[in-house]
Design a protein that fits this description.
Elements lengths: L2 H10 L5 E4 L2 E3 L1 H8 L2 E5 L4 E3 L2 H4 L7 H9 L1 H10 L2 E3 H7 L4 E3 L1 H16 L3 H15 L3 H15 L2 H12 L7 H4 L1 H7 L1
Parallel strand pairs: 1-3, 2-4, 3-6
Antiparallel strand pairs: 4-5
Helix pairs in contact: 1-2, 1-9, 2-4, 4-5
């Protein structure tokens, strides 16, 4: 089962899912974020990116399916093909997050929204979510195809070489590479 197939139930769950991003969400972390019903991000600290193509693999956990629907074809192309990071302000502008909010207001903003929705009749919320999903979510088969494409490229020797170079530069550590991954990938 692909990671995208594991995230799908999050989109289809009865409760409304609201993500609050206060740090970095890249790759599968960003794809988890996209699977949520709504996304809110810290103006000061949020960073979102899809580094996969820059490392030689495919975005297999839902980025293609969600980003095309959230941000449009051109923005999805740019985010996925460039492997560049976007900050909260840009993510809001292109529709990847619902709203970028200051750190001081982020939690209270999301809590107020969640409480408001929770106060509405459950049947109406559930039905609205189901119909919005019917209109906006990708077919399950497309999510499975993307997961398979990730697997095809993941074992390639060129991918291993690029990942090795990133690891030597401090990937997945508190380092310049991790903080500026979108830039560093372009330097490989």
């Amino acid at each position: 089962m692909s990671l995208g197939a594991l995230f799908r139930p999050l989109s289809e769950a009865r409760p409304v899912t609201i993500a609050l991003l206060e740090g970095r969400a890249r790759g599968a972390g960003a794809e988890f974020l996209y699977a949520c019903d709504m996304r809110f991000a810290s103006l000061e600290r949020a960073v979102i990116g899809q580094p996969e193509v820059g490392t030689g693999v495919f975005t297999g956990a839902g980025a293609v399916q969600h980003l095309v629907r959230l941000a449009g074809r051109g923005q999805a192309m740019q985010m996925i093909l460039s492997s560049e990071d976007v900050d909260a302000r840009e993510a809001e502008r292109i529709g990847v997050v619902n709203k970028a909010v200051t750190d001081g207001e982020l939690t209270s903003h999301v809590e107020r929204l969640a409480e408001r929705i929770a106060g509405f009749p459950e049947a109406a919320v559930r039905l609205a979510k189901r119909r919005i999903n019917a209109a906006g979510l990708a077919p399950r088969e497309d999510v499975h195809v993307d997961g398979s494409l990730f697997q095809v490229l993941a074992g390639d020797s060129a991918v291993a070489a690029r990942m090795g170079a990133l690891m030597r530069r401090g990937f997945q550590e508190r380092s310049h590479t991790e903080y500026e991954l979108g830039t560093v990938i372009g330097e490989l």
